[in-house]
């Protein structure tokens, strides 16, 4: 098999100059661009279901007869169904183990062969993944023989001594209904499919690709922290070094659409001695007169970052970033030091493809939202780039486990760290939720260990990632410690189809009543006295069309209800709201846009309350708002 095979795409991932309004060319599911060649391994793979989990003991990686094929990317559920000749995805209810295998031809090395090596990256795969090259088990760059997690990418460097002209790649994927692993809204041994719980969608869910990378390089992950008052941008970089010695990090910041080779807005060199292995380094650059990023003006700049060795060889990555500042002060959320009301919508991508998710994002912007709450799920990382360009604020959540144990907390922490490391580039990402409605933290009201873990992770996020607001447990049961809320926002989930009851709940909420508003008390732990000291958000409401939230209605009636409910929200001291939800998903039929096409079923601009009212520190004024 060679590079001319239709399953391969061999090209350079550099981008052409495009107008500022157009997206940069990025065919791979990652947010940071590397200026090199890649070989896409999507397409037909050999496939087998290992019902008895005997493949490791029987050394399938050394040789096995595969009787089926499957298209990568795609879910295990789809592939099992296809193997059985079925048309719809197949459910499994305990454990699933599957194997994939294919060959690839070794690409030609360029003139920098001595400085380069092959790397294979899985855009997302899981929950448990093992990979063999020509029968030899590989370890990820982080040293894992088994990679856990299904929402983020991971990579293997391919040792030269294991490579042949023709190579065999074998992948084993395993998943279970284990309630202690991060599952989000997928069913488990605790929460069964139906209602708000959905079929699992696991396995080979994103692209896999080979690429030539430098032995000494910047990895494809960049953190950005801006404090807008001092015009400084702090870049958090990850370096992978095989040859220790003297290096220079060179940072250039350019206009987003600047021609290659044009003068940068700011640039600086940072000399340093680097040991072998993976290290993290922060560098700081002043960008005078930089324009700030906001939903109304999503100003982006291009970062060019180079790692230069002692002989002058340059390894380069590029990313887009924006300068913005998000804060919770008193009862308001401030973006770039201006109070900003959040007109949000709940978004559950489910099984949406990248193209479908893009259509959803444009449609949610058309609805008038300035915030999208990506609900305990993973999305293709290019979607974060799209939100940066569109000017959509994002509220990101860790997919939750379904039980509260020491092991579930360890798995939750590992998933959080994997996700945040790959998402800290984006100005659009402003809020993180650790948990939602006690899922995976069911004993939060009674177990001090559960509360202590959440408090510790809240403090960790505050210190390491100050560019985000953090919610401890969205919806209710926020944690108070010595009377201090361990959440940047006080959030409540309120569902009622009755407008009079809605007014009553909102009144009680803004008066600081911690019990009797949401399904459970809003705060647990020590007594907490609201007194408007943190922003208050109704982070789920509506759901009109779902039987449990108000029953089926036609589009016109739903739109009228939404307008009336939004009007009541804006007449009170509330900092933002999140309507449930963007699309229908399985049994939950309450979406405002079509899952496949993105077409709206309600008027455009319906969720935009900022055009009618402006939120200010002294009250409401009848002028346009941020």
UniProtKB/TrEMBL annotation:
> Which keywords describe this protein according to UniProt?
Glycosidase, Hydrolase
Q: Which Gene3D superfamilies match?
A: Galactose-binding domain-like (2.60.120.260), Glycosidases (3.20.20.80), Immunoglobulins (2.60.40.10)
Q: Where is the Glycoside hydrolase family 2 catalytic domain?
A: 356-460
Q: Which example biological process does GO assign this protein? A: carbohydrate metabolic process
Residue ranges spanning the membrane: these are none
* GO function term, MF aspect, one: hydrolase activity, hydrolyzing O-glycosyl compounds
Q: Where is the Glycoside hydrolase family 2 immunoglobulin-like beta-sandwich domain?
A: 230-324
Which residue numbers delimit the Beta-galactosidase jelly roll domain?
93-175
What residue spans carry the region label Disordered?
Answer: 1-22, 607-626
Q: Which SUPFAM superfamilies match?
A: (Trans)glycosidases, beta-Galactosidase/glucuronidase domain, Galactose-binding domain-like
Q: Which parts form a coiled-coil structure per UniProt? A: none
Q: What's this protein's family per the entry?
A: Belongs to the glycosyl hydrolase 2 family.
**Name recorded for this polypeptide:** Glycoside hydrolase family 2
Organism this protein belongs to = Hymenobacter taeanensis
């Amino acid at each position: 098999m060679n590079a001319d095979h239709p399953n391969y795409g061999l090209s350079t991932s550099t981008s052409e100059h495009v107008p500022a309004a157009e997206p940069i060319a990025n065919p791979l599911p990652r947010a940071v661009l590397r200026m090199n060649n890649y070989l896409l391994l999507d397409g037909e793979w050999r496939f087998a279901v290992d019902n008895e989990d005997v493949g490791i003991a029987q050394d399938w990686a050394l040789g096995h007869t595969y009787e089926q094929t499957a298209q990568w990317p795609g879910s295990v559920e789809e592939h099992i169904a296809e193997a059985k000749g079925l048309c719809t995805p197949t459910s499994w209810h305990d454990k699933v183990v599957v194997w994939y295998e294919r060959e690839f031809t070794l690409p030609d090395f360029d003139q920098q062969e001595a400085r380069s090596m092959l790397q294979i990256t899985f855009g997302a795969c899981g929950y448990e993944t093992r990979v063999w090259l020509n029968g030899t088990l590989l370890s990820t760059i982080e040293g894992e023989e088994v990679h856990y997690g299904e929402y983020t990418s991971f990579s293997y460097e391919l040792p030269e001594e294991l490579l042949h002209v023709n190579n065999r790649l074998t992948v084993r994927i395993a998943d279970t209904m284990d309630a202690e692993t991060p599952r989000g809204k997928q069913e488990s041994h605790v929460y069964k499919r139906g209602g708000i719980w959905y079929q699992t969608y696991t396995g080979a869910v994103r692209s896999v690709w080979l690429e030539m990378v430098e032995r000494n390089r910047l990895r494809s992950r960049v953190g950005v922290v801006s404090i807008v008052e001092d015009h400084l941008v702090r870049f958090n970089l990850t370096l992978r070094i095989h040859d220790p010695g003297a290096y220079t990090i060179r940072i250039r910041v350019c206009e987003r659409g600047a021609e290659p080779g044009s003068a940068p807005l700011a640039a600086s060199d940072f000399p340093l001695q680097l040991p072998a292995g993976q290290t993290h380094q922060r560098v700081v650059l002043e960008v005078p007169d930089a324009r700030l990023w906001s939903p109304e003006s999503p100003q982006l700049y291009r970062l060019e970052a180079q790692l230069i060795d002692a002989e002058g060889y340059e390894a380069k990555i590029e990313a887009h970033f924006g300068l913005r500042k998000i804060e919770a002060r008193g009862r308001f959320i401030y973006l770039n030091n201006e109070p900003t009301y959040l007109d949000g919508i709940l978004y559950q991508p489910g099984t949406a493809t990248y193209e479908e998710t893009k259509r959803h994002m444009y449609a949610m912007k058309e609805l008038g939202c300035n915030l999208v709450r990506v609900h305990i799920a993973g999305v293709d990382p290019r979607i974060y780039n799209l939100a940066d360009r569109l000017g959509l604020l994002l509220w990101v959540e860790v997919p939750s486990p379904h039980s509260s144990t020491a092991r579930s907390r360890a798995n939750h922490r590992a998933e959080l760290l994997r996700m945040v490391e790959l998402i800290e580039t984006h100005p659009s990402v402003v809020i993180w939720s650790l948990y939602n409605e006690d899922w995976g933290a069911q004993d939060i009201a009674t177990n001090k260990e559960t509360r202590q873990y959440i408090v510790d992770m809240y403090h960790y996020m505050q210190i390491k990632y100050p560019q985000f607001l953090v919610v401890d447990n969205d919806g209710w049961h926020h944690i108070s410690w010595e009377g201090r809320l361990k959440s940047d926002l006080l959030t409540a989930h309120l569902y009622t189809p009755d407008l009079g009851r809605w007014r009553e709940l909102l009144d009680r909420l803004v008066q600081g009543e911690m019990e009797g508003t949401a399904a459970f008390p809003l705060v647990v732990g020590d007594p907490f006295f609201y007194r408007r000291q943190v922003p208050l958000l109704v982070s789920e409401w509506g759901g009109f069309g779902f039987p449990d939230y108000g029953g089926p209605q036609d589009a016109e009636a739903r739109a009228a209800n939404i307008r009336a409910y939004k009007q009541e929200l804006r007449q009170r001291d509330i900092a933002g709201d999140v309507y449930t939800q963007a699309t229908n998903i399985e049994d939950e039929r309450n979406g405002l846009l079509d899952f496949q096409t993105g077409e709206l079923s309600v008027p455009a601009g319906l969720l935009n309350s900022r055009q009618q009212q402006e939120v200010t520190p002294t009250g409401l004024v009848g002028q346009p708002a941020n």
